[in-house]
Structures
1.
Amino acid sequence: MNHRIGSNAAVMRRWLDLAHRDLVRHSPVLNALNVFPVADADTGTNLATTVRAAAEAAAVLETGDVGELLSLAGQAALEEARGNSGTLFSVFLTAVGRSLEGSTRMTAESVRLALHAGHVRAWSVLTDPVDGTMLSVLEAAAAVPVPQGVEEGSNQQLKEFLAGVSTAARAAVLVTPDQLEILRETGTVDAGALGMLVVFDALARTVGGDDAGDEKALDALIDAAEARAARAQDAPHAVHGGVEVMCTVELTPLDAAELRHELSEVGTSVIMSAVTETGDGYRWRVHVHVPRPEDALTVIGARGKAVNLTVTSLSEADG
């Protein structure tokens, strides 16, 4: 469906809806590419589920403030986030929204600053940030300059800027095998990085005024990634075990810092991000990979009551 170039809250609602639909369409490939941090074949599903939560929240939020819309949608997504990729997307979206709060329309410069804020926030919530992942795509997007030679603050400038973001994200995806050893071994690109490219591509198309626009470049990249993933699945590789534990818990900042350290001692892929402020602290979304559920739940339970709890097997057999 064609629209005029747009930069307001209604356009952002369309973006999240389109990003969700595109992620659903590409989920099989993203799942097949999923080898880091564990090969549990769910990156596409996790991202699609999380972005759907953001899209559904945005659809019912009655605000013309672009920043408020994206911030609240990000918070809603964080409460329902699935996996590393979904959690990082939610954190990123919330930070982007907070940077844009107070604006009824976006400009290339305001979005550039918002992308930088989202990139910094995503890096900050990880205990061990790794290049060659979704983080590298966020970093590439945050580094894109505002186009010159076009009217400052115009929708046309924003369109050209986001086209540049999509191009930079695509380039970042293509070099992920050079940055991460497991990807060099499999000869594939990172699933989370490719998923974030799908999200940025949907943003560029929506703001550009053509939601169903030319996807040939992205589709060609995904087709190539799918072929490589099929070859990689035929090769011998390690089988991973353990579980992913996710929950929400109310904590003071000090307790949250201590819990993050304690979880790092019993597990990996620790992510902790504040969702909303409470009376004497915050609601924190917690993510960790551990050998057994009790390894994480015992530590979390000593600090607070875990709600919205999910425990998911990381075994490939259960993927």
2.
Amino acid sequence: MIVSWDDAYTQSVIDLWNEEAVKDGYKELSPASFEAIFLSNPYFDRSKTFVLLVSDQVQGFACGCTGDDLPLGDVAGYITCLVLSSESGSDENYRRMLDALEMSFQNAGKKQADILFFNPMLLPWYILDTPKHEHNNAPGVPVDSRLYDFLLAEGYTERAKQCAMYLNLTGFTIPQEIRAKEDKAAAQGYKVELFDPERHFGVKEMLNGFNNLLWQKEIGQCVADSVPVVIAAYKDQVIGFAGPVIRQANGRGYFAGIGVLPEHEGHGLGSILFFKLCEAFQAIETDYMSLYTGSTNPAIRIYEKAGFKTVKQFSIMRREFVQ
């Protein structure tokens, strides 16, 4: 039997997660983290959260969310997770849970189901072969998971692959090649450094130029709150950024993105920005960095040159509902 969410299922779902979801690399849940990720999230919706009961025992958990203010939110429902116990992990049960999620989206007027990094309910996961270093968000379905294979068989299309990348910052140094690029860019009027409101201007205009709502909100807020951000400036006008420079409590360097306005490309600024960001993280005793990027994103070459390795792949998936 599939039922909608009730708080009485919380501990049983946590136990299920810690038995099954961790097999795909997800971080364990505690009552506090379950509250933070799910119940207290402004996008948590009991009508889009389901539990599979077998003989009155919790054997499955599925959660989705919607929001017209989210990217694609006017047409898409987001699938956050779908977890089943090993003894109940049949195709039939996966399909029943998926049907419940999709029907809840259709009842909300949505035309498709998406699994992607815009989901505001963030699921942290551990990076393999590290001392429990973690990433704060799973940007899709792990390609080595049972759920990935099931969704493909159910007609979900893979729209892109996201490469999760990792670097231990111990011993990181900026190579001479990048220093030479920085000197050459400086001779052309460019500087890459931490944002200084007393000297630099044009952050809002730069962010608008990328047409990225998440960057506009997050980087704009960081600058307003005096959180360090590495920027590229042409004659003190900001034309690129990397960051912000935040060391999380788990030792990870938080990374929102990197960008250079198109009219200022071709000077190696992307590489310089990223290497200077890694250096800035070192300066505040950050242990490691992790990030994800599309497998076809040219920026992946910058990350690899800095020493990052792909440690896991996630699939961005979608199914459009039959109208």
3.
Amino acid sequence: MNTIIRIAVQKSGRLSEDSLSLIKECGIKFYNGTGKLKSTSTNFPIEFLFLRDDDIPGYVADGVADLGIVGENELVEKDKDVNVLKKLGFSKCRLSLAIPKGEEYLNIHYFQGKSIATSYPKILGDYLAKHNVSAEIHEISGSVEIAPSIGLAEGICDIVSSGSTLMMNGLKEVEEIFKSEAVLIANNSLSEEKLAIIDKLLFRINAVQTGKSNKYVLMNAPNASLDRIIELIPGMRSPTILPLAQEGWSSVHSVLSEDQFWENIEELRAAGAEGILVVPIEKMVV
């Protein structure tokens, strides 16, 4: 029987959408219809398990799944013995403390002796202990924002993306305690055959992510300015220089990170670069 790897992915929500989008960009084909809990790729040795996000660390630690894509917040909260292979750069959010917006807040010691509702008692408990704050932690599984208004707790600790949910419930964010993004995790006892497949998967993920963070840049420039322009856009190894039909001019092609391009755009124009085109890169192998 051919070796395949199993990867656990959140079955719904933003993390699920971002995870499956990355996998599809890696050229891996599969079907994930509504309500489907398991699927096998048609062109890569991988099987998908669609699970609740808080179950994923345990499934990977127990070897039911070889890999998992999960938020760092769930990984740290569940505290399972797994190997973090890669931070994936999407589904970013923060875990923050919030209180009723009419309350005055100076620092974390506001919570001394108070009660806090959260779905993340471990992360919150560790943070409070680090700052020598003693508070009562109420663990609840959902609708954390309602806790202060019904008298269950004096503050909450919950995931925040934009902060709009807090505002709608009369709360304000006062303390960020944890930053989270999606991570790729692996079981610690994988066979050499499975590790070889995972290496191929990581190669594809790296190619997709490197492409997203870089741009292909083309411009026309006077030959007298080429030395300066090459200093500004060195490229992966060096820029490609092609002569134009107009004497004394060349076309310069290079690959740059988007941040590097915006940092140098004014100097490129000052050096005489014209007709600058910035093209997205689908995948990039370095």
